[in-house]
Amino acid sequence: MDLALTSIKMKIGLAVLMFAMAIINGDTAGVAASEIIGGAFIVFGGLMLFYLGLQKQVSWIAVLFGIVCAFDLFGAITGGLNLARVFDLVDAVLSFVAICGIVIWFREERRRGST
Description:
By secondary structure, this protein is mainly α. Helix content is about 85%, strand content about 0%.
């Protein structure tokens, strides 16, 4: 589970960096700064809820976070490769790492339960 928790920490840092860069550069595409900040709080809050649930090793939260990561990974892969999508690709790598961490955790739990 440590791998998934580390991935969430990195995803939080990446989200903070993306929102800060959007506000600093003024590249908000017509969206008000308050809406960007509100979106940042929603993303941060959702990731923190996943973090707390995974830290307590709640299996249904792990499955739900795995599904969210799978959609994130699929969206980044189908979006194409270009320089503007660098953050999406980094986020997709972190999603893949989180999925691997969840799979490893479930496998260890199954082995622990069978002995």
